Structure formats: structure tokens, C-alpha cells
Amino acid sequence: MIIGLWIALGVIVVVVLWLVGTYNGLVTFRNEVKNAWAQIDVQLKRRHDLIPNLVETARGYMQHERGTFEAVTQARAAAQAARSSAGGAPSPESVKAEQALSSALGRFNLVVENYPELKANQNFLALQEELASTENKIGFARQFYNDQVMQYNTRIQSVPANVVAGMFHFAPMDLFELKAEAEREAPQVKF
Amino acid sequence: MWEQIRANQRRSVMLITAIAAILLALGYVIGLYVEPQSGPRFGLVAAVAVLLVLWTVAVVGGDDILLGSANAREIQKPDAAQLFNIVEEMTIASGLPKTPRVYIVDTDAPNAFSVGTPEKSVVAVTSGLLMHLNRDELQGVIGHEIGHIRNQDTRFMTLAGIMIGAIILISYGFSRITFYSGAGQRRSSSRGSGNAQAIIFIVAILLAILAPIVAQLFYFACSRRREYMADASSAAFTRYPEGLASALEKIERSAGLMTGVNRAVAPMYVVNPLEATGPSGLFSTHPPTADRVRILRSMAGAGLGAYEKAYSNAQGAGLLGGATLSQAAEVQVRPPSAGTEKAPLQKARAAVDLLHQANGFLFVPCACGVKIKVPPSFAGQTIRCPRCGAEDAVPPPAT
User: Fold this and answer.
1) Taking the model in full, what pTM does it have?
2) ipTM of this predicted complex?
């Protein structure tokens, strides 16, 4: 009788320890996923901050390309507005605005190809490298976030841990999908 | 990848334990040889003391020792914006908590290595790497190095390298001493017949010769698998395995040109410069470059699953575990990055300027447009421009 009591106590202790450990693990992982999202936000903001400099440097050389400059500046303003209204979380509007900004920048880079003096300017090259790197970082941050989300979702859905996940309401998180249509749109060069 | 990384950690611990055991055995036997009665105990104690000193040194300053022995200098972001950007990109893609510091090694042969733990790491590249590789290839190599850091390979390799260095030194010293002092002349000891002494002598010499070899065998067995895993990590981070593949080819072609490579650091490079010309075998730290390139080029996608498939096709065995693969996403290879690539002459100039910065050189602009690079000892003096002959003042040393 006494032994049975001790065994039951031991089992309860083990179960409680497992519960606590799994819960803490899930909380840590969820915070890591949120941190991965914040990384994307940091890079998006960096891109917004770099653009005015780029436009100013190029403006002296490309005096007749006002349309291109306006397109980039407006896209940037729209993306900034969408980002601040979304408040640090991805919303469909902010995602669309960022994609619009990416395609505006793509068209801008196409036009720059026609101005060899601009391409030889050291400042401009440095800025282009910074911008290209920021685009890469956005891509990598998004990729890392998606990988983390996939692992997190798998974890809360697999068998021992989903019990804890259900009890404490750990919901699966959304992958950061890009709509394919905007990327397929070919930039049009107007003459 | 986590179960693989944990398995490698266990292997690292076993490796360190095995090397420590060899060191202790060496101490015991040398002690036995010198003084059969109290020698062994004294030898063991000395070996333990040496171990403790080595561990302390490796933990406190191991990274700096390795960097110093490779003659690596630290560089800052303003001097090498593209390189730092690539390092930051790979840090984000891998999820490292802190961006590694970046060092440069002055040699024309392209190569790279990394040391440290994810919280405190260093990536070192050669000036040759910056001169010969384009952006995608550079990204692949840095991805490989950061893969090593994230997979915790570098944490134990530093310690293992330092311990093996100590074993080599001790066995070398011991074999020299016995060689020159002559086999028969020893301080006499009342116990032990001539036969026993001869046996002890033979055992001591054998151990002294074999110990470094066995220690290195352990080291190499752990290394090769980790190189493949770092290749897989790099492909998964960059989504562009061709970058690393063509970088490896370029590095392999010129790696033998590296002069004055320290034996302790050689295994940590992307391609071991001391092995570049010979065939790979039991004693190589790295798998053959041709195999690595073939696997990378035969990948159907860019994720861990694609690498695993390519690896098992080429090698006939598995690399990553089931749980890792089930959690790995199927990813597409991205297109090569567009953008202006600098001319080779410009890249060479940029790399040499970087070396000058790292060595504390002063840059003095002349009115005719030439940038004169002056060693720090010229601070505060006046020099003559080599092109126009005008006198330019070198800024005084910063206080």
C-alpha cells in the first residue's frame, strides 16, 4: 500500500516535470518565432530609410526621369504608412505595399542601366550595394521566419507536445507567404 | 538539424576524452620510463596539470591563439561593406544570436575559416578570397563558415586542436630525448630486470610515435562529416548551391599556393591548404573537393532534403537524420544575383586597401588625385607624392 503511494507520487512528479519542461520549451520557441518576425521588420524599416538617399544621389544625373523618381517615392510613402498602421505585425496591406515598393525599385534599377556616369559614381554604387543587401536580408529574414514557423507548427502538432499546446492555447502561426502575381508582373520600361 | 548537432556534440566530447586519455597515458608511460617506482604517478599528475593548463588556455584565449597563428587582422565594416553585408545576411539566414567579427589573412590564395561559439564567433577570410570570388560565391563560402559556427563544430575543434598540438610537442620532445640520451643509459633503479626496462622503453617509444597519429585520426573522423553538414547548411541558407560549388572549385585550384600555413590552423580552412594537392584518405580533414562539388551540383532543390538525396546518391549512406528531414521545407533554388560585378583589378585594389587598413596604414590624399598609403611609422612626417612630386603632410599619430 505504502509502496503504491510512493510510486503514484513519483509518476505525478515526473508528469508535472514533463509538463513544465514542454510548456517552457514551447514558450521559448514561440518567442523565438516572434523575434524572427521582428527581424523582418527591422530590415523593412532599413530599406525605407535608405531610399531617400538613393533618390537624391541619382537625381543629379537623371534629370529627365521624374516619373521614375515619383513612382519610387510614392511607393515608399505608401509602404511606410502601411507599416506604421499595421503596428509591427504583418497585415495584407503592408505586405502588398512592400511588394509594390520592390517592383518600383526594380523599375528604377532598369532605368539606371542607361546612365553609365551614374553607375560609375562611388556613392551611388555603395548605396546600391546597401539596398541590394537589405533586399537580401529581407529575403533571408523571411526565409528564417518561415523555417521557424514550420518547426514550431510541427512541434505543437506532434504527439506528446500537442497535449500541452492544447491546454495552454498555443495556436499555429502563419507562414509569410508572398502572393505570386505581383512577382510575376514584368516591369514595363516606357520610352 | 538539432539531433545531428547534438550527436556531433557527443562525438566532440568523446573525441576530447580520447585525446585527454592519450595525454594521460603518455604522461604515465614517460614517468614509468624515467623512474619506474614513483615515475608513473608523477607523470600522471604532470599530465593532468598540462591538461588543466591547456583547457584554461583554450577556453580563455583559444580563438585568439588560432587567429594569431594564422596572422589574421580584424577589419571593420566601413572598410569592407560588401563582405560585412554578406556576413550579416548569413547571420540572419542562420539565426545566429550575434554577428561574427571579421578578420582578414594576407595571402593570395582564396580560403576562409571560422572559430568560436554562436555567442562569440569570428569569420576569417583571405585577401585572395576577396580578389577572386564574386558575390554569390562569397556568400556560399561565408554561409559554409557560419554553418560551422551554428552547428557548434568550432567550439570543440579549437580545444581538440590545441590538445593535439600539445601531444605532438610532448611526443616529439620525448622521442628526441630518448634518441639522444641513448637507449641503455638510464638512472638505475633497483627494481625491474633489464627485460622489463626494455619493454617499458619500447612501449614508451611506441606510444610517443603513435599518440599523435591516433589523436589526429579521431580528429579527422569527426571533421569530414561536419564539412558535408556545413555544405548542406550553406546551401539551405543561401538557396543557391552553385555559389558554394564554384567557390570550392576556385579555392581548390589555388589553395596549394598558400605559404607558411600553421599546421594547427590548416584543418579549419574551407579546403585544407596542406592537402590540396594530394589524394584524400584516412588522414584528410576534409572530404575530396570534387565530391563536395558534385553533390552540390546534383541537388534538385536547395533544402536539406535535396542535399541528403544528392549525398546518398553519391556516397551511398545517409547524412542527416529522419527528424531533421521531416521538418525541413522543400525549397527552390533562387536565380543567381544580378548586379554590377567589380572588375578584377578593382577587386584586387579593394582587397589590398583592406589589408592596409587592417595593418594600421594611413591614407594620405594628394592634390593630384593619388591616395598614398603610408606605414604608421610615418605619422607626423612629410612625404613626397610619387606622381606629382608635391609635398604632403602625414597626419600626426592619434593620441
Assistant:
1) 0.78
2) 0.77
